[in-house]
Amino acid sequence: MAVGTETDGSIVSPASVNGIVGIKPTVGLVSRSGIVPISASQDTAGPMARTVREAAILLSVLSGVDAEDAATTDARHGQIDYTRTLDAKGLRGARLGIARKSFGFNADVDKLMEDCIGHMRREGAEIIDPVELPPDSKIGEQEQEVLLYEFKAGLNNYLKRRGRKETLADLIEFNQRESSREMPYFKQELFEQAQKKGPLTETAYLNARAECLRLTRTDGIDAAVAKHRLDALVAPTSCLAWLTDWINGDTANGGCSTPPAVAGYPHITVPAGFVHGLPAGISFFGLAWSEPTLLRIAYGFEQTTKARREPQLLATAKM
Predict the structure, then answer these.
(1) Is residue 314 part of a domain?
(2) Rounded distance between C-alpha atoms, residue 246 and residue 229, angstroms
(3) How many domains does the chain have?
(4) Which of 155, 187, 248, 258 fits a 20 to 30 Å CA distance from 229?
(5) 2-27: average pLDDT
(6) Distance between CA 228 and CA 236 in Å, rounded?
């Protein structure tokens, strides 16, 4: 087991490309105390494990109220043993909406997802297809604005609470002074953009955050769940593993992490199979505090597909 942290995709995406289970909980289910912040509205810790049961065990340990993290004091939950929500027949009767906007980045991944959808239908799930969500292109600009504001405020507060005199401005100056060592390949554009932002009381921040909530909650996940009476939304988790390119940067080209991440809602990825020898994950996400329902569905999928395989050290991907 491991504990990951996510702002938008950093638990579910590596879990997917490594063929393991990842749970990005509802923001507030797990304390963020001690975690270097990016976004107060999106950051959370969560389990990464081989199986849904192991991830549920770790989530049971991690969850709880922490006086140092205000988000957890508002959480509508108690101390739950999440393993009690697991059901090998968890797909039976589940209403699952297919978020088609997250398909289309890889034809072979799409084919694997179609096989998974057919399997879930045969196991008794009701499939509603398609289910519409606002496009990520509309969410992305507003999300970026929120993250820049919250990163500056959060990091400066993090350093202050730990008795440090440095601020984000000091880190930028240090990186510039030591650029040959600190930034031989990648620069600090996001640091510099964040430093230009003002306090979290500025209208630009408040408007961007309100728009994020409208697109991902009111007109997004909330609307889809209510309209179709869904237990969860389903999509491919991420693109396949990619090579790190130190010149041109990452080439990740697909995924479904943004709506639940920006909404602060739970998201679980489970191994779905392999494409050219590379693992691919399938995602289940839904309303705030719906972890018990998502775990039941994810466990039902896992137990009836047995898609995960022990990792191998291959010389190259299969073609």
Answers:
(1) no
(2) 45
(3) 1
(4) 258
(5) 98
(6) 20
